[in-house]
Amino acid sequence: MLRYLYPMRTFLIVAGDVKKPNPMTADWVTPLSFNPQLVGIAIGKSRYTRRLIEEQGDFVIAVPTIELLRDVWLAGSVSGARENKVERMSLTFIKSKKVKAPSIKECAANIECRVVNSFETGDHIFFVGEIVNVTASDAFKNDTPDIANYKFVMHVGRGPNFTYQSDELIKL
Amino acid sequence: MLRYLYPMRTFLIVAGDVKKPNPMTADWVTPLSFNPQLVGIAIGKSRYTRRLIEEQGDFVIAVPTIELLRDVWLAGSVSGARENKVERMSLTFIKSKKVKAPSIKECAANIECRVVNSFETGDHIFFVGEIVNVTASDAFKNDTPDIANYKFVMHVGRGPNFTYQSDELIKL
User: Fold this and answer.
1) Cα B8 from chain centroid?
2) Per the CB < 8 Å rule, is B33 touching A147?
3) Which residue of B has its CA nearest to A138?
4) Angle ∠(A118,A60,A8) on CA atoms, nearest 5
5) CA distances from B56 to A11, A127, B17, B27, B99 (A)
6) CATH 2.30.110.10 fits B2-164, yes or no
7) N or C, which terminus of chain B has less Cβ within 10 Å?
8) Res B68: pLDDT
9) ipTM entry
């Protein structure tokens, strides 16, 4: 019944480090607090990303643009525990400023988060991260994102008809 | 720094009962678990809606369409504690099936939730709700929402340039 909340924005959660980065596609991302600046992400309990975040205590929320759709798709459909999905991607992983988890050069923004809390919520773990640094493209130089030029990614639904959408629907 | 996650989907959180409904606009909404079906909403600590949800233990996430933009705007800018904002709206509040908090007839979907947990996250309370019932329009009759016909609402940013967007940008 969660599909009634869709379409949702799609992000890349980056765990690991710059030598062994592990990006994962995630829709279940939300701001939680203005002061302190907190965000929350729900990660499936059996996910490799969950283990990496628990071990390292940090993660990056990278904001992909529609040009990165193929990589977003790969990050969401291949497990980093089973194969090195990064090799199949065209993304460039670079050092973040304040956390060990890397940023993605091609993304519109990289939100660096340190885990300050986590809760079990059903079949997921909900990590609460404090934002400790952000790097971003010109699309974010004003108070509101420049959506005329910045083509963000949305996820329409689960199942065999997985589709992603920016300002126009793109069928894979 | 939360603005890097925007634009975000915008929903109406309905608290109270059908005699005294209190709708509030909220972007900070996320799925949390497939089994059980859980969703999370972050509500400002000082909000009237927070008190209502804590007292009653349930809420409805109503999914507005772009046609309801004026009401979405009102629900997000007027406090239900200070005035009866519902009187200024054109929304029809109807009984929900499984919770006391009412549904909104004009919305594309009404997701009825019972609070199963809550956490303090900075200046907000994060309520975890189990979905106990959903009523929805034909836009949701397939596995993926019918976004060709269903014009959902997005929120671009905070501050003086508050704007909402569906598939085309609408300036208020």
Assistant:
1) 12
2) no
3) B4
4) 80
5) 34, 27, 9, 22, 9
6) yes
7) C
8) 92
9) 0.91
